[in-house]
Amino acid sequence: MKIAVFASGNGSNFEAIAEAVETGEIQGEIVMLFSDQPDAYAIERAKRRDIPVISFSPKSCSSKTDYELRILHFLHGYQVELIVLAGYMRIIGETLLSSFPSRIINIHPSLLPAFPGKSGIQDAFKAGVAESGVTVHYVDQGIDTGPIIAQVRVPIHPNDTLAAFEERIHQAEHQLYPRVIQEIIQCRKEDRKS
Ligand code: GAR
Predict the structure, then answer these.
(1) Pocket test residue of 108, 135, 140 for ligand 1, highest count of atoms within 8 A of CB
(2) Has 92 been labeled as part of a binding site?
(3) What number is the ipTM of this complex?
(4) Ligand 1 in contact with 58 (CB < 6 A)?
(5) 27 is in which domain, residue-wise?
(6) Dist CA 166 CA 126 (whole Å)
(7) How confident is the model over 68-89, as a mean pLDDT?
(8) How does pLDDT run across 137-161, given as a tens digit for each residue?
(9) DSSP character at residue 62
(10) The domain that contains 13 carries what CATH number?
């Protein structure tokens, strides 16, 4: 399975997925990293692993369609079969959605549908809930919506700090995402056989 990872920032989830590919936990290959942020740390991580990097901002394109058509050109070039969003902070448009139906997944740091958006960890912590978690879901046209594939719960302890809670969320993400990606690969293999 040829995988493209999309990331806008730090790229710790990208790293966890790349490690899982290396150890064989994921029976697939990351054929490209795409970033909309030319200074994203995820790019450094990909370069260190010799994974091809494609990076340009939508600002350099005439429209969202133009932006996504440019991305699509690379996805087709690398024969990508699965798009994995890992901290990619943009809404996916119709061009990519219609080209990759049920083949774009996202990870979000809350128990969706609670706390969608860019600050799921902080929002849950500030709300004072006793637990939050991590969700992996198929992507649709919304912000952190689309059919849920898997969730794990992460408690918020009474004397927790945001930093400690955030760390546990990321640990949960780094375990869950590789596992779900491998499950998807396994399911697709079995579908092809039957
Ligand atoms: C992750 O916590 C991911 O769940 C979140 O961005 C972070 C990226 O971290 N995504 C969203 O909030 C999507 N709405 P990373 O760059 O270290 O992987």
Answers:
(1) 108
(2) yes
(3) 0.99
(4) no
(5) 2-193
(6) 12
(7) 98
(8) 999 999 999 999 999 999 999 999 9
(9) S
(10) 3.40.50.170
